[in-house]
Amino acid sequence: MAPAKTPWAARTVRAGRDSETRTLLLDSAARVFARLGYARTTIAGITEEARVSRATCYVYFASKADVFRAVAGRVRDAFLAAHEVPGVDADDPHALAHESITALLAAYAAHLELMTVIEHQALADPEIQEIWREIRERPIRRAARYVERVTARGLADPAAPGRAVAEAMAGMLEQFARIVTADPARHDEVVDQVTAMYLRLLGVPPRDAAGAGTSAGHR
Predict the structure, then answer these.
(1) Of the candidates 36, 31, 38, 37, the residue with the CA atom closest to the CA atom of residue 64
(2) Backbone angles phi, psi at 190, to 5 degrees
(3) Per-residue model confidence (pLDDT) at position 103
(4) Which of 43, 72, 73, 143 has the most CB atoms around it within 10 Å of its CB?
(5) pTM score, two decimals?
């Protein structure tokens, strides 16, 4: 006879299932919102995409607006996570640029349609407006601080103030993400091109000129 499950073990199993169901709903909702926009999306459409009942959806979310806020929050978290590049030498602008741009380009490419919906919905929903501000503003502020830091250390001579360089990069990444989405085979080429343009904006000498050899990302 199998041993009886303890109450703690049973709660853990339920929590795991709950997490899986919530993730399924959010993944499905993200696809539907991206495909149809906010106004045309319904709870019925989300649950049909997820292949669960409406009652199941209402266990986790009170309304369509509640689902959308959770979806938008996940997009925000993805962009903030893309700025974390563990294992890369912060004193190596070439390697840091290549890895950061790879991660950010992936974030933009994965969420282009949703970002349009989030931006539009931010006009009517203060909570979404705050999430949108974090998606757009926090990465730019972070990038601007980095530009100022490497400039102060003499590692860069940017073509413009840090804020302007960061805003230019955000626009460039969004535009080139459309190219990668349309033609995924160009991913590596686009990463190299955007990295090269960013380093020019940043005013970082070519790696050979800096006497630092060639990074693994550019071999």
Answers:
(1) 38
(2) -65, -40
(3) 92
(4) 72
(5) 0.80
The answer to whether the Cα torsion of 91, 219, 80, 200 is positive or negative is: positive
Q: Is the Cβ–Cβ distance between 194 and 173 less than 8 Å?
A: yes
Task: For residue 172, give both structure tokens.
Answer: 């460039």
Q: What is the pLDDT of residue 195?
A: 95
Query: What's the burial of 137, exposed, middle or buried (CB within 10 Å: 0-12/13-18/19+)?
Result: exposed
Q: Buried b vs exposed e over 177-214: b needs ≥16 C-beta within 10 Å?
A: bebbeeeeeebeebbeebbeebbebbbbeebeeeeeee
Residues in the chain where the model's pLDDT stays below 70: 1-18, 208-219
pLDDT of residue 4: 55
From 148, 187, 140, 210, select the one nearest 168 (Cα to Cα): 140
- From CA 157, how far away is CA 6, in angstroms rounded? 63
pLDDT for 86: 80
On whether the CB atoms of residues 103 and 85 are closer than 8 A, the answer is yes
